[in-house]
Specification:
CATH class of the largest domain: Alpha Beta
Shape: globular
Number of helices: 11
CATH architecture of the largest domain: 3-Layer(aba) Sandwich
CATH superfamily of the largest domain: Glycogen Phosphorylase B
Strand order of the largest sheet: 10-9-8-11-12-13
Structural class: alpha/beta
Number of domains: 2
Number of strands: 13
Radius of gyration: 20 Å
CATH topology of the largest domain: Rossmann fold
């Protein structure tokens, strides 16, 4: 199989891919049928829905992970690629028959040529955000996994001079949608400068919002890796994020941002971490610069592609 096709097959996946030995003479025009990626999402309301991305089951804030319902095939794979060390542990826990030596970590990456600082203000002005005031930015779906209710409660008590910008849409369920709207209304009553942008924005606007933010916040209760944190870092913005899943493999605590334990004090600790960054712009700038350097050096597509290609080469040599 052409290595460029192999890289393309795994580089955008949210969970992991399963690689088998391939027959000779594989065509270059498409991936062969025996390279297969399946994800299973089990909504808390019951039922099964196959997706092309993601594999998450939540009961409240508790996550149960299943990768596929065809474990025999996965356990026969020559290699399993997980997008983080945390995901690797989940894979091994789900499939104890897997040889740990066959489960490899290749982190997801981003195009750091696209995600780079843009210090313009037109996108801010377009959405009514005051460019002269610092703001906390969230970008993500309205789901339990993303921890949005925790965030809306946490930011009630942060620095009153800071704005809060929520690029949040696509609620998973009517219940989480209703909860989000109620919490947003409550938040808007107790502080000024709260903005909700429910629609998906063009990438250039997102990049500008990321760049101009005083701090990006990721309150997820679970993330296989957390690509959005990489996008913020690539734009030179410090990150405050939960210490779960693969996030600690992206955000270097104390250097590119601040990590917060998800426990009974999560919302209080999250607010404190945000205030720490908001209260010292010089520290925020240093974190942002270090984040950009880390995103380019460790998570750029050239780096990820080399790691992926090397693994495929290794597998093909065994065939």
């Amino acid at each position: 199989m052409p290595l460029d096709k192999a890289v393309e097959a795994v580089r955008t996946l949210a969970l992991g891919s399963y690689v088998r030995r391939l027959p000779s003479g594989t065509g270059r025009s498409a991936l062969p049928p025996d390279v297969e990626v399946q994800y299973l999402r089990l909504p808390s309301g019951g039922g099964e829905e196959e997706l092309t991305h993601g594999a998450h089951l939540f009961v409240g804030d508790r996550l149960l992970v299943r990768i596929t319902n065809r474990s025999a095939e996965r356990e026969a794979a020559d290699a399993v690629i997980a997008v983080s060390g945390a995901m690797r542990e989940d894979v091994l826990a789900c499939y104890p028959a897997l040889d740990p030596a066959a489960v490899h970590v290749v982190h997801n990456g981003i195009d750091t040529r696209l995600y780079r600082p843009d210090h313009g203000t037109d996108a801010l002005v377009r959405h009514g955000i005051d460019p002269t005031r610092p703001y906390v930015l969230f970008v993500g779906r309205i789901t339990r996994q993303k921890g949005v209710p925790h965030l809306l409660r946490a930011v009630r008590d942060i620095d009153p001079g800071a704005q809060v910008v929520l690029c949040a849409g696509a609620p998973d369920t009517p219940e989480i949608d209703r909860e989000f709207r109620e919490l947003f209304e409550e938040l808007s009553r107790v502080r000024t400068g709260v903005f909700w942008i429910p629609r998906m924005l063009p990438r250039p606007e997102v990049i500008q919002l990321l760049t101009r933010a005083a701090v990006f916040v990721c309150p997820s209760v679970y993330e296989p890796l957390g690509i959005v944190n990489l996008e913020a870092m690539a734009c030179g913005t410090p990150v405050v994020a939960s210490r779960v899943g693969g996030i600690p493999e992206v955000v270097d605590d104390g250097r590119t941002g601040v990590l917060v334990d998800v426990d009974e004090e999560f919302e209080t600790r999250l607010a404190r971490a945000l205030d720490t960054v908001l209260g010292d712009p010089a520290v925020g700038r240093r974190m942002g610069e270090a984040g950009r350097e880390r995103a380019v050096g460790e998570f750029g597509w050239d780096t990820v592609a080399r790691r992926t290609a090397a693994l495929y080469e290794e597998i093909l040599k065994r065939a």
